[in-house]
Structures are given as C-alpha cells and as structure tokens.
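Dear Dr. H.,

I hope your travels went smoothly. While you were away I took the liberty of generating a structure for the chain from your last submission, since the lab meeting agenda had it listed for discussion. I wanted you to have the full record in hand beforehand rather than looking at slides cold. The sequence, exactly as received, is reproduced here:
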Amino acid sequence: MNITNEIISSYIDNLYVNENRRLEELRQFAEEHYVPIILKDTEKLLKVIMRLKEPARVLEIGTAVGYSSCVFADCCDCSVLTIESDEEAAKAARTNIDNLGFADRVEVLVGDAREVLIGLDTAESFDILFIDAAKSHYREFWDLAMPLMKDDSMIICDNVLMRGMTASDEYDNKGKHRTSINRMREFIAYINGLDYADTAVLPVGDGVSISLIDKTQIEKNEES
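The corresponding predicted structure, in token form, is as follows:
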C-alpha cells in the first residue's frame, strides 16, 4: 500500500528517468529480487537535495546493495561512508560500488551502526546523514551520529511513515508492528521538538524526514 493516492504515485513514478544505465540496472536487480532500496520519488528528492547542498562528505546508515550510496556519489562530487550490519549485504554492496566506478569515493563499514558510530573520529565531520536502517533504532542512530555532523548539516531519514502505520493504527491490522510503530512515532516527535533541528516530514516514497541542523543552538542551550 502506498501512503499517497495510487494514481498520483503512478504518475510520479512515470516521470522517473535514470540517466546512469548501470545504476538503472542495479535498481532493476534490487526490485526483481525484493531488495529494499530507496523508492523512485525518494531518489529524485535526494538528488535535488544533494545538488543543492553540494556535500563534501555523506554518512549513510543502512547500505543494502549500495544503491543509494552510488546515487549520492553519482549526482555530486562527494565521498560516502556507509554502514551495513549484514556482512553478505556489505560484500554485495562493495561489488556493486566497484562495478559502478565509485570504489574510490564510497567506503563500506560492516557492523552494528550503534557500535560503529562510537568508533568514528569526530574530527572527520559530515555534511549529510542519511538514515535507512532498522526503524526502531532511528533515535539511537541520530543521537550517536550527532557528534559527527557539521554545525550546518542535514539529516534525512527514510521510511518514517512505515506504509502509513506511523500515522494510523488502521494500517497495522494484525498489530505485528506495534513496537516499531511506537518507536517511530516517538522518534518523529523527538526530532520535531529539538531546538537545534528544523524538521519537515514529507509523504514522499514511504515517508521522508528532512532536518536542517544548527549545532550552535546546542552549545547555546548547554551554556544557558
């Protein structure tokens, strides 16, 4: 089920064009094998953001087959550090990244992001953080990554509406996702209440939150 009108979603999907043939082939492979990657309208939004922001360094949590990492590297001259918990997925991602010619700009780290983030050097800061991993851990990812972000960075989170379940319990008919739903709702409330983050939640793809960060506000709050 889409979180927007089916007719509108179909119309937007038909506008999608991927000029990178190898990226398009990777998308087709992922879709045919049910590998979760960013949806087409989400990809278009991310490309626009990347070109506007022109980030030097991007941090990604949730690599899968490396599709979104390659999208980032393809649309702007940035380096990408991506974290994947599954070793087999990370191996496949490295192969895809190499095949698309981005091995010199995309690095894949393997492990639980909550542990990997703690070990990263805070001196190597990032312009953009993209979170697309275990939905129930979004707040932990956010908080652990914050020391790594630049003062005027941006944090983008995918799948925050969870096929509509975040907005209404009626989309979780059998109650199987109650814990994940509650945690996502708590996360959305959390980031919308932060003094240092200006956040918008958009019904794009499966729901995308975009937060503009002002870390100087954190310092002001600590001083007061």
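Two observations you may find useful: The radius of gyration is 17 Å. The chain has a mean pLDDT of 93.

With kind regards,
E. W.
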